[in-house]
User: What shape does this take?
Amino acid sequence: MTGVAQLAEFIVAVLLVATIAYSFLLDRRLRQLRADEQMMRRTVVDLASATDNAERAIAGLKTTLAACDGTLADRLESADTVASGLSGSVKAGEEIIDRIKSIVVAARRIEASAHLQIGEALPLYEADTPLGRNPRLAATAAAAEALAMRARARIRSAA
Assistant: This one.
């Protein structure tokens, strides 16, 4: 039995060498797997941390957006109020300027007809009068004076 026993021992020795070699291979793979597991754990922790930071940032942005929306709405409302007030004031001012223009034109016509009846020339518009201090009123008065001078010239040429 020595031959069979030696053969059995040889087979056991070969199997033992194969088992040891396979153990080294499995050990290397397990170490690599553990290292990958550690990297994966760090990646998961980093990802969770980044997600938390992003959630906090989004919450902050939502709060800021709500505050900006409220502020913008208030400013738009006050701008609309001011714009409508200004629009009314400008319209009223234009109506007043039109009335003053009509009064100046009528006064110049009356004055022109009075001076034409007497044969005098109309006095020139003076810039230091209250009308001369307001550019729009001054322009209106100057336009009225120019119209009166043209009317005088037409009347003189017709006569």
Summary: The chain is about 90% helix and 0% strand. The mean pLDDT is 82. Residues 2-118 form the longest helix (117 residues).
